Amino acid sequence: MSTTTTTTPGRADRLAHDVGERELDVLVVSEPADVRYLTGYTGSNGIAVLGPGRGGVRLFLTDFRYVTQVERQVGAEWDKRMAAQELIGPGLAEHLPAGDGSTLRVGFDDAHISVKQHARLAGLVGDRAELVPAGGMVVALRAVKDASEVERLRAASRLADAALSEIVERGLGGRTERDVAIDLEMAMRRAGADSPSFPPIVASGANGALPHAEPRDVAIEPGTLVTIDWGARLDGYCSDCTRTFAVGEPAGDAREVYELVLRAQETALAAVRAGPTGKEIDAVAREIITAGGHGEHFGHGLGHGVGLEVHEGPVLSRRGETALVPGHVVTVEPGVYVPGRLGVRIEDLVVVTENGADVLTGLPKGLQVVA
Ligand code: ZN
Ligand code: ZN
């Protein structure tokens, strides 16, 4: 686990401004990735309560188990207090800022707080506070990365690249998908990763036609394609990359499918810059794959934002209405999945910059025939 202290008063100030715009007195930030982003706290039970109300609130609540960790990780701008272990409930209720006679408007994360937690909290605060649904406010800030976050994403990507190269050099043919996946995970951890970003996907032959295939106890056959989708979490930040290899010379039209996906990926990647919406970038890849006769075999969106979580905003898909801005970090990962036969996916992680884009993942993309 990382012990780096991130001092991020600027983030809290920006969020407090947004909280005021929403006419809330305070916002309760409870999702671990959001809490980490705002405060640097990496433990599992801590919430931040902040807003412009009552003279500016910066409250951090945890329970007795994390007091030392909070002292080390959470900056001096936060008023740190020990509360009941059930934070969304008695913990928060006992530490809500005192009223000035009016009802406190408290925003909560309706995307994550359960109906049960909400009912319990509402019962405890009574008419001292009105609970207002306000999910997604920190997520919106997190989508635009600052320079230090981009450097962390780059470092995670480099670590993951090196780990995969090490595994592929040893050969893939004849090993089971599961064995390769475990080996890759270990290589990332040995190189210093906190963990993998997600359990690695290693999918060969017809299994490659399942975009979220789970590695099987089945040997990778010569003459097939194998798709490996993996990432490293380093200092909290995730990388995400996919490469498809040929184990020996591939049979049938595998090479043609590969070249089609590669052309779609490179063209869409080159289109990433500030300005276009996620939908427009998605369309660049989708048109190429459709013209190549495989439109119905590309069933998922082109990409997604990556940061403290491996899937965050903005989204590159037919539903991607957000225009890209400098600081967005997204994947570009078209795929073609021919049921019962094969799958190809190629994925890079890219940051939108002031004058274009900068690809964070670095492994070659021409079809590599490996042992
Ligand atoms: Zn991926
Ligand atoms: Zn991805």
Structure summary:
This protein has helices at residues 9-21, 32-39, 67-73, 87-95, 115-125, 137-142, 147-169, 177-190, 254-271, 278-291; strands at 26-29, 46-51, 57-62, 79-82, 104-108, 129-133, 195-196, 201-204, 224-230, 232-234, 237-238, 241-247, 303-305, 312-316, 329-332, 335-338, 342-345, 348-353, 356-359, 369-370.
Query: Count of helical segments?
Result: 10
The number of domains: 2
The CATH superfamily of the largest domain is known as: Creatinase/methionine aminopeptidase superfamily
The CATH topology annotation of the largest domain reads as: Creatine Amidinohydrolase
Helices and strands in order:
Blueprint: H1 9-21, E1 26-29, H2 32-39, E2 46-51, E3 57-62, H3 67-73, E4 79-82, H4 87-95, E5 104-108, H5 115-125, E6 129-133, H6 137-142, H7 147-169, H8 177-190, E7 195-196, E8 201-204, E9 224-230, E10 232-234, E11 237-238, E12 241-247, H9 254-271, H10 278-291, E13 303-305, E14 312-316, E15 329-332, E16 335-338, E17 342-345, E18 348-353, E19 356-359, E20 369-370
Parallel strand pairs: 1-5, 3-4, 5-6, 12-20
Antiparallel strand pairs: 1-2, 2-3, 7-10, 8-9, 9-12, 10-11, 13-14, 15-18, 16-17, 18-19
Helix pairs in contact: 4-5, 7-8, 9-10
This protein binds zinc ion (2 copies).
The site of one zinc ion has 4 residues, from loops.
